[in-house]
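Changelog excerpt

This revision adds worked examples to the README so contributors can see how folded entries look when concatenated. The first example is reproduced verbatim below.
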Amino acid sequence: MAEKLITNYEDVTVYGLDPETEETMLSQQKELTFCWTTKDGSPMASILSYFYADGKFWMTSAAHRKRVPAIRRDPRVALVITSTGMEMGGSRTVSYKGTARVLDDLETKKWFYRALAERLYEKFGENRVKEFAMMLDSPGRIVIEVTPGLRVGYDGTKMGAATTKSREAGILKVD
């Protein structure tokens, strides 16, 4: 089937993110935007380091941060991951609605701290991994687990390719 030539960017839903590209982003990107709702219903967000395992997103925070009581009050959150800074380049994003849980049991903390430290610092050697995991292990730290629900993906490289085809076909002309 021939690709449709475009004249505007009104409907970008046709430039969906392929599962393979999403998987690459989840495994290689180290930060995401974590969004929650404040007590008065206002949206708020922060950039957090994460990893994805067993169909869930895993992050950490100090328990005194405002996001922690907000999650306990309303576990509905959103996550946004981009290809920014990745080798793949391009403008690719994937967003998820999700349900968050705050975990503070020792068993979870023990495996999580090591797993996050390896993800972030493995290339710097075992001593740096151990150091980071040790620094995370503080009395007021919690682990955030997010089970994703609705997913929306976008691949700007597909839109760029469609624009190029339309330009080459003479559909797009800039005065």
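The second example, added in the same revision:
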Amino acid sequence: MSYLTAHAGQIAQLTLQHLGLVLGGLAVAIAIAAPFGILAARVPRAGTPIFSVTGILYVIPSLALLAVAVQYLGLGPAPVIFVLAAYAQFILVRNIATALANVPAAQLDAARGLGMSPSQQFWRVELPQAAPVLIGGLRLATVALIAIATLGGYVGAGGLGDDIFLGLQRKYIDQTLAGSIPAAALAVIVDALFRLLERSSRARLE
């Protein structure tokens, strides 16, 4: 643990880089997953091929996918963000589709009866009703991406993976722990924050 205390400033910087990778990957993932999740909820027949593709992406070994991404995107954050966005699809697309499909039909009927347009129904009824489930999916995806983002240490993307892999190469356990412990702590903190948001969104619906 001496390495952790002696390099606190550096580890704090790596933690911020790590969080940046995760947030970047999550932002790209949401932008891709949202339309596919909505389509799967609206057109159930479309769900099967969409879920199949995201499932295939999820079972590809992360290092193998990263190696392919590096061939096209080079070293640095870009291939890591690509891998994070790809892996998050399996969780997010299914979560979005499930959340929207489970919105009570009575709520939608009432919205239509009030003369709401499809867009108004989505933003005023479906999204608030689906919020707890959506937040739960974001929680799972974010925690998973925090772990996968450690691969950034292999390709010069920064983040806590730098200390983890350098420590492994040098057989220096303190340096490996200096990357592993903050990554685990970050996952625990993020999980707790999302759980609070999830409870708050459920309370608003009661």
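Reviewer comment on example two: The mean pLDDT is 92. The domain at 2-205 is CATH 1.10.3720.10 (MetI-like fold).
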